[in-house]
Amino acid sequence: MSLSNTPPPPGRAFAEESTTAALAEPARRVTARWVTGLVLVNVGINAAFFGPINVFIGQQAISIDAPGKESILSLVTACGAAVSLVANPLFGALSDRTTSRFGRRAPWVLAGAVLATAALLAMSFSGIVALMVLFWCLVQLGANAAYAAITAAVPDRVPVVQRGRVGGLAAMGQTLGILTGAVFGAVVSGSFMVGYWLCAGALLLSVLPYLFHRNDPQLSKAPREAFRAGGFLRGFWISPRRYPDFAWAWLTRFLVNVGNQLTIVYLLFFLRDAIGYGDPAAGVLVLTGIYAVMVMVTAVLAGPWSDRVGRRKPFVIGSSATIAMAGAIMAFFPVWPGALAGAAVLGVGFGAYLAVDFALLTQVLPSAASRGKDMGVINVANSLPQVVAPLLALLAVTYLGGYRTLFLTAAVIGLLGAAFVVKIKGVD
Asked: Which ranges does the record mark as transmembrane (predicted)?
């Protein structure tokens, strides 16, 4: 009998079966328990991101140097976002190669959450800008490791026919996280230190349900190529010529996220300085609450709807245009009722966008073996706007006409994102 016909040893057979399960296109629908874990991780990560971005970093900046608060906020958030540009695809790629018996993604979810939690606690004690920058960069490093892994888990485990629904629920989790951060900002009465502690606790607790019910098949060591630094780094370049749909999807997501970030990045200062709202942190909570309700409603409706009709692009185009409309409302009606209307319209557009665009993105990934890295590259389109938007916002508000210029710029960029969706050919 030839060696080619000899059955593989039990350990090797298990490894091959496990690797097949890890890399196969998913066909079995995911359970409600698994989806709940996914949603909760998104809640915790986004509370850790947006509680500080929307409220606590701004309050901390005011306590250090009130006249220079805009520059401090822009510096801290831009440096953190620059870290996320590298961290998200890097940890996504590392998770693709992880052979832990706990799976490819779960170890990074846990390790990232622990690092970000520790950095949030350290940031609460930072009394100088340099330490704010350092610890916020570590928050971004850890949270992006967890986010890269949990994002890659969706194309790993969720079949295409269920991705709109799961994308909608994940978007709901993201929005609940943003709302949670705003609630923390309102209830701590200006004590950013306590706010950071609450965000840290929420993040650490949020990952536990997913870790206990992760459904994360192990990748064996046998079929992997040897690690080579050059090849690893080259893998982050995904040719637009070879994968044009992936490139257009990346560009449209980047533009829409720039528009969205421009609308919200100076929200605390907009309420304080332009509208003259008496309690800006409470105002952020009200606007975030309206935004969150609309995001959750449209996300859970649009995602399953796109599954049923089997189309993604019309939803993405319409929602991108709606996001742009929110910027126009804020530009021409810089009063409290205008802010309320802008928040509602932004929520309607962004909820549908988050759900359906996420499903679209998972359908244009180049390779099953590199889902984590590829989703990490896609997530750069979420992170890079956090670098670009604060810089554009600083220029617009300080040098180019103020908040009207800021919000009109957001509207124009959002419309460009809607226009380029038509270039994607492989998804209807």
From this structure: 34-57, 72-94, 106-125, 131-154, 166-188, 194-212, 246-269, 281-303, 315-333, 339-365, 377-400, 406-424
Burial class (CB in 10 A: 0-12, 13-18, 19+), 156: buried
* Nearest to 103, CA basis, from 367, 305, 297, 372: 372
Amino acid 174: pLDDT: 84
36 pLDDT higher than 90 = yes
Q: Is the dihedral of CA 38, 249, 293, 268 positive or negative?
A: positive
Q: Is the pLDDT of residue 368 over 70?
A: no
The DSSP symbol for 366 reads S
CA–CA separation, 87 vs 148, rounded Å?
8
Q: Could you give the CA distance from residue 426 to residue 413 in angstroms, rounded to a whole number?
A: 24
Q: How buried is 221 (Cβ within 10 angstroms: 0-12 exposed, 13-18 middle, 19+ buried)?
A: exposed
* Among the listed residues 198, 171, 189, 176, the one whose alpha carbon sits nearest the alpha carbon of residue 52: 198
Can you give the pLDDT at residue 2?
37
Tokens encoding 169: 């629920």
Reported pTM = 0.75
Tokens of residue 117, six digits: 């939690």
Q: Are residues 225 and 352 in contact, defined by beta-carbon separation less than 8 angstroms? A: no
Asked whether 79 and 130 are in contact (CB, 8 A), the reply is no
Q: Identify the burial level of 247 via C-beta atoms within 10 angstroms of its C-beta, where 0-12 means exposed, 13-18 middle and 19 or more buried.
A: middle
- The single residue listed with the structure tokens 């790993």 is 156
For range 166-185, the mean pLDDT:
85
Residue 209 has pLDDT above 70, yes or no: yes
Widest distance between CA atoms in the chain = 85
Domains by residue range for the chain, with CATH: 29-215+234-423 (1.20.1250.20)
CA distances to 56, 91, 226, 272 from 99, in Å? 38, 14, 13, 50
DSSP state of 334: -
